[in-house]
Amino acid sequence: MEIRMLRTLADEMEKEVRERILPFWMGTARDPRGGVYGLVNEEGIPDPLASKGGTLQARVVWTFSRAYQLWPEQAYLDSAYHVWRFFLDHLWDNKHGGIYWLVDSRGYPLDSRKLTFANAYAIYAMSEYAKAFRDEEALKNAVFLFQQLDRIAHDEQGGGWLEGFDRDWKPVSDARISSNDMISDKSMNSHLHLLEAFVPLAQVWRDELLLLRLRECIDIFLNKILHPETHHFRLFFDRKWTPLSDWISFGHDIEGSWLLVKAAEVLGDTDLLAQVKEQAVQIVDCVLAEGLDEDGALVGEMNSAGQLEGQKDWWLQAETVVGCINAYQISGDLKYLQTATKTWNWIKENLRHPSGEWRWGTSREGQPQHRPLVDFWKCPYHNSRMCFEIISRNRQEE
Questions:
Q1: How is 103-152 classified by DSSP, letter by letter?
Q2: How many domains would you assign to the chain?
Q3: Is the pLDDT of residue 2 over 80?
Q4: Could you tell me the CATH number of the domain that includes residue 73?
Q5: What's the pLDDT tens digit per position in 159-169?
Q6: Within its chain, how far is the Cα of 119 from the centroid?
Q7: What letter does residue 359 receive in the DSSP assignment?
Q8: 247-285 pLDDT tens trace
Q9: How do beta strands 248-249 and 301-302 pair?
Q10: Contacts of 178 (CB under 8 A, 6+ apart)
Q11: Predicted TM-score (pTM) of this structure
Q12: Pseudo-torsion of CA 150, 155, 157, 158, nearest 10°?
């Protein structure tokens, strides 16, 4: 029965990503001038004048590079290359290295800061592109950027990576990625995406320093970011890793639970992998107990008073499905597979848009959020990756 449940999930998700999500990004979201549009409104109408974020374009490069590895078809190669050229020609700084935070609709820099968060996604995208297409230029730039971040952003005294820099890689005082964040020296979010970026890079470039940094990143999560009693990630820190906030982000918790396992698998350390797997299941248990509503959808955050905040955004639900499947495969406990299926059913009922892409989400009460289908943050990375993960995991089980 369990094998059939996982196979059913995988079959449905293959249809979701190949017949709905990816066609939207190859069609409606594709900007014929290069890359994808920076904004597509709720009605599915692109704004050709909208600015384009480096993170969005990097995530789309990653998505089509990963799709091609599962289904090596010309359409995915063409889509990956189309966004890759815009990324390389307009977001990549040929003089100093790294990607800009924001460019205008045709690629002129509007915000040339080099934020660690966005440049982690650049490594992620370039590494996956190099892996999919054996592209030496992509690999060269990914290696260069890893070394650049290690030389400039890595904190040799306290460990980890600092948050942000200007175009010339000089530190900036405010490296927040949104107005909702705190000004801090270090953040969970940047380290989470460095962690995920180092994995595909290590798969194409087995470098001793890279593996050392990947291990360091895991250690930081286990010993600095993860609260030893609550099993939640703390979000913002000073340079010495003193926590600056006690808010909880359920989506990042459950996303990190399975990304940590992926990272430990790459290192091949069986003791570390066992430790990470144990923590992953504990993280998922806490998230489901505190943040999952009866309908199967995850709520965004918990504030300092222990009250649920935020809405039921698309990315939270995608990460819930993967985190639960990962916990099921570690523990063998059917409840995680059942929860993943329940969340997936909620997604199908509440997030599908006629265009093929998902809606942004709903309020906690279930009212649709009227927000764009594509913008700086709305991308195919979470929902496509959910599909890719479940399909890949099902193939490994068969």
A1: E-TTS-EEE--EEHHHHHHHHHHHHHHHHHH--HHHHHHHHHHHHHHHHH
A2: 1
A3: no
A4: 1.50.10.10
A5: 999 999 999 99
A6: 13
A7: P
A8: 999 999 999 999 999 999 999 999 999 999 999 999 999
A9: antiparallel
A10: none
A11: 0.97
A12: -130
